[in-house]
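Sequence in, structure out.
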Amino acid sequence: HEYRGPGYELTYTESGDTRTRLLWNASVDAVRLERPEDRPAMQCTPLTAGESSFIVDFADIDRLSVVEPPAERYTAGVETPSEEATVLCRLAEVKPEAVSVSSLVALLDREFESMFGEKRAVRAVRHVAAVRAEDCLPVVPALISRLTNDSTATPEVLGTLKHIGTAEPKEIAPLADDIEPYLDATNVTARREATRCFATIADAYPDDVITAVPALAKIIEDKADRWEYAVRALSRLAAEHPGPVKPAVDPLQAVALDESAAETVRMEASAGFGRVAKESPKIAVDIVDDIVALSESEHYRLRNNAAALVYDIAATHTDAVEPYSEDIAA
């Protein structure tokens, strides 16, 4: 991963004078790298939002060092909501503990002159929620309004709700109906974050994900980004209510038998499939040979899930299991 310092102090020469600037970011200017006739230079983004980016030749740089500017330096000179959103997002990324949640609540109540400003404001909340989820509960109403309005910040909203839900599931469980449409979203990020939200909801409130079974099954079939969270959500639901998960048995079965999938994901899938099959053993009869093979897996929980499923099938379909009796006994 690329190192991200809290800030940088650049000392350089400009027109014969020595200058020192605080920067948010400093990187090699990619354009000049593509032009051998130009001298290599650094692209510099000032720490405060109101200042424009600039370029400095490497030959003019005296010193570049990592520094930790005080929080007030980030917000110095801020004039518009979008500028405030930019600097709070920067501060939240490197010092989430230094950002006041009340300032974020107030910021989200303002009108943004740029859609990017709104997105950065929500992203600032997301950074803070990643480490201080309980502190961010006052922001939830502002997040809900953006969720129901399908704003440009929706993917960030869903990601933030996932962090909050991990700490306080009851805060996002009532939003299941509002989140569910994003399980079919064309926006990859929104669909991914919605899937993660549903896995979190299913952990504590499985009843609230029942209506989402078809969409979660489709996510697995599509191998959409972070589809393993859909497996987890269906497995958690099946533990409490196996019946509603029956329409999703095919993708769960496919994952359980997929040797290329992570063992932990296969375990979740086999557990969910097994709970549904226990209620309706007939659905597993056609793949008994695959299930018996799973009972020899090196992963003990996957092996146990498979063995339990074989015995459930044998209870009502002895003839289907009988040819494998010696393998099972071994």
